[in-house]
Amino acid sequence: MFTQDQIRSLVGATAYDSDGDKIGKVGHVYFDDQTDQPKWITVNTGLFGLNESFVPLAGAESRGDDVVVRYDKATVKDAPNVDAEGHLSVEEEERLYRHYGLDYASGGEYGTSGTDRTTSGADYSAAGTTGTAGGRHELRDTERSDYQDRSATDRGLEGRGHDTSGPNTDDAMTRSEERLNVGTETREAGRARLRKHVVTEHQQVQVPVSREEVRVEREPITDANRGDAVDGPAISEEEHEVTLREERPVVDKEAVPVERVRLGTETVRETETVGDEVRREEIEVDDDARSRRR
Length: 294
Known about the structure:
The chain is α+β, with helices and mostly antiparallel strands. The protein has helices at residues 4-8, 73-77, 90-99, 141-155, 226-230, 288-293, and strands spanning 14-16, 22-31, 38-45, 51-56, 61-63, 66-68, 122-123. Strands 1, 2, 3, 4, 5, 6 and 7 form a seven-stranded mixed sheet that branches.
């Protein structure tokens, strides 16, 4: 239940849905003709807030200068088109009840009994005004002028756009989108080193060698060697000796340079695929006048 002060502050307040999404500015408050209780509020919706949608006040709550209704933004925007300038008829109210899933026979959330209920809805648009069964109350000239001027500025009716997330802009809105800016950066990917160590292996080499062997040479006695043959005793003991020589392999080692090794770099070109999520804005036209003509 709203207090009188809260009811007076509803007009011009910002309405939010149950998920915290902004719906629009509150334009009017309608009272039940029988119970004199606030029952409906109208909220400026549609493109630039040109349309007014009726929203049940049941279940709503006041939060500072804002009001939070129990329905989501889409449900409010899809509410049946009802002329907010006149008294609600029974047919209009029944359509609104069906749209919001309320029981019209039981009076919705307010408990007013009877199916032969009268039309509801004195409009509470000015401070200190109470609902009556005579129909909608009109705003006084000064109060209506102030409210209309303020509404026009808020709703963008004077050639200006209304940005729901910031200040008013001009008569056009800017559509933006995110784009990927792709480049490259150079960073250290690793290091390569040259390291020298000693490995021992066994090698075999074929080496040609020579040696001397004893060969006995015999020659017959001839006139040429007879003198040498009879020189000395006729019979005696004698010994002759010869030195035999041979070659043996000799192994020696030496360190010799065989090659030079260094580290270098080369650039290899390849293509990699990168991706990320980007956002873009899309603009929809909500033409309530065209919908009513259809």
